[in-house]
Amino acid sequence: MDFQREVLDRMIILETKMDVVISGCPTCKAKVDANEIALTKNIESTKSAHHRIDEVYKTAGYISAGIGLVLQVIAFALQNFKGVH
């Protein structure tokens, strides 16, 4: 039996045992359910934060490109129009 299959089989056994234990304890079940809801909300919040951060990086990239373009134009103008009045 390969390693991945063995790990998967053991996880299935553990999950089954956990379900049996939790079903015998309504308070435990309620806590697990509450934790699953909280975990889902945290994952959604994390995804939203990553999206906002990605937008900040994209905006910063556009600003940097714009500043670089302006500086290139100024440098070009200074080099090519030094003595022209």
User: Which structural category do the helix and sheet elements fall into?
Assistant: mainly alpha
Overall pLDDT level: 90
| Strand percent estimate | under 5%
Distance between the termini: 85 Å
Task: Tell the overall outline.
Answer: elongated
Give helix and strand order, one letter per element, not per position: HH
- Sketch the major β-sheet: none
Q: Low-confidence parts lasting 5 or more residues at pLDDT below 50? A: none
Rg from C-alpha positions? 29 Å
What is the helix content? over 70%
Explain the overall architecture.
The protein is elongated and about 90 Å long. Helix content is 89%, strand content 0%. It contains two helices and no strands. The chain starts with a helix and ends in a 5-residue tail after the last helix. The chain is mainly alpha-helical.
Keywords:
85 residues, 2 helices, mainly alpha, single chain
List the helices and strands and how they pair.
Elements lengths: L2 H21 L2 H55 L5
Compact overview of the structure:
By secondary structure, the chain is an all-alpha fold. Helices cover 89% and strands 0% of the residues. The N and C termini lie far apart (85 Å).
